[in-house]
Amino acid sequence: MGSPKVDPVGARQLPSQVVKADEPLLVAAAKSGDISAFETLVSRYERKIFRLTQNITQNREDAEDAMQEAFLKAFEHLADFEGNSRFYTWLVRIAVNQALMKLRKRRPNVVSLDQEVDTGEDILPREVEDWGPSPAQRYEQTELSDILSKTIGELDPPFRVVFQLRDIEELSTEETAEALGLSVPAVKSRLLRARLKLRQKLNPYFKQEKKS
Amino acid sequence: MKCKKIINELQDYLDDALDATLRSSIEEHLGRCTDCRIVVDTCKQTIDIFCNSEPAPLPLTTRQKLHEALAKRLGRARA
Fold it and tell me: Does domain A121-211 have CATH number 3.40.462.10?
C-alpha cells in the first residue's frame, strides 16, 4: 500500500496584491473630490469592513461605529494615500485601529496586543480526527457564517486580530506586523496558535462522520 | 523528523516559506504519519474556509446608518 497523498501547499497570490482594474481610477477620482467614486468604494468594501470590525470588537454597536469612523477617516485622509499598497489594505489598517480603540475602551483589562503572550506547549494538537473533503459545503452560507463568527469570537483578542488580518483579510505577515505594531516573529507565533485553536474549535462541526 | 518539529515548522510550511530540503523532509514525514497529515490538512482547510467565506450582507439598519453618516459628512465636504 502506498503512502497517503500529501496535498502540496501552493504559493497563493494574496488578495492584498490583487487590485480590481477600476480601483486606481476610483481612488484618483475620490481624491479629486468625486464623492460618488468614494461611495462606490464604500459599497464595494462595507460588508468586509463590517465583518472585520465585528470580529474584532465582538459588539454590534462598536462594530458599526468603528466601520463608520473608518470610512470617514479614509475619506478625510485620502490625500495621504500614496498608492504604494492596495487601497483596501490601507482601509483595513484604518478600520483595525478604530476597532481596537473600541475594544480597549469597552474592555480595558484586555491583554494588550503588544504584550508578550503565552504561545507555549498547549498548542500541541490533541484531537486528530479527519474532516474529509469540502467540509464547509455541509452547511448553508448563513449557518457557516455563524459558525465562523462564533469560533473566531472565542479566541483571545491578540490571536483573533492577527488571524483576522493575516488569514481573512490576507495581509502579508509583514503588513500584519506593521499594522499591529508587532514583530514578525510575534505575528507568526500568534498566527500558529490561532490557526491550531480554530482548527480545534471547528473540529466538532467538520469532522468526518465515522462509518459503522 | 519528529511530530513536534512538524508543529514548529507548520506555519512556514503552510505559508510556503520553507527551503526545498526542509519541505521535502516534512512531506516525507506526512506521508507516513497519519496524525500529522490530518493536523496539517485540517489546519489548511481551516485557513481556506475562513479565507473563502463570503461576508454576510450588512444588516439593513447598519447600512442605513453608515450611508446617512457618510452623506452628512461628505455633503459638508462638498459644500
Answer: no
